[in-house]
Automatic annotation (TrEMBL):
<feature type="region of interest" description="Disordered">
    <location>
        <begin position="1"/>
        <end position="70"/>
    </location>
</feature>
<protein>
    <recommendedName>
        <fullName>DUF3073 domain-containing protein</fullName>
    </recommendedName>
</protein>
<feature type="compositionally biased region" description="Basic and acidic residues">
    <location>
        <begin position="38"/>
        <end position="50"/>
    </location>
</feature>
<feature type="compositionally biased region" description="Acidic residues">
    <location>
        <begin position="51"/>
        <end position="63"/>
    </location>
</feature>
<dbReference type="Pfam" id="PF11273">
    <property type="entry name" value="DUF3073"/>
</dbReference>
<dbReference type="InterPro" id="IPR021426">
    <property type="entry name" value="DUF3073"/>
</dbReference>
<feature type="compositionally biased region" description="Basic residues">
    <location>
        <begin position="1"/>
        <end position="12"/>
    </location>
</feature>
């Protein structure tokens, strides 16, 4: 028991979201979605700190893996 109050609150929140949408800045949305097609961000720079160029990746090839013996 006790689910009635929680379900009533969820229903109320869902109804508010469905029928009472917040004010949307349509001009800002259009600017965001209608971009120039190319990004001025360089995603390689964003992840540069996580890449270790000195690391040996010779074991990354799955063809070189050996099945463990029992």
């Amino acid at each position: 028991m006790g689910r009635g109050r929680a379900k009533a609150k969820q229903t109320k929140v869902a109804r508010e979201l469905k029928y009472h949408s917040p004010n949307t800045d349509l001009a800002a949305l259009q600017r965001e979605l209608g971009g120039s097609g190319k990004s001025d961000r360089n995603f390689d720079d964003d992840y540069k700190e996580y890449v270790d160029d000195d690391e040996d990746h010779s074991d990354d090839d799955p063809d070189n893996w050996v099945r463990p013996t029992r």
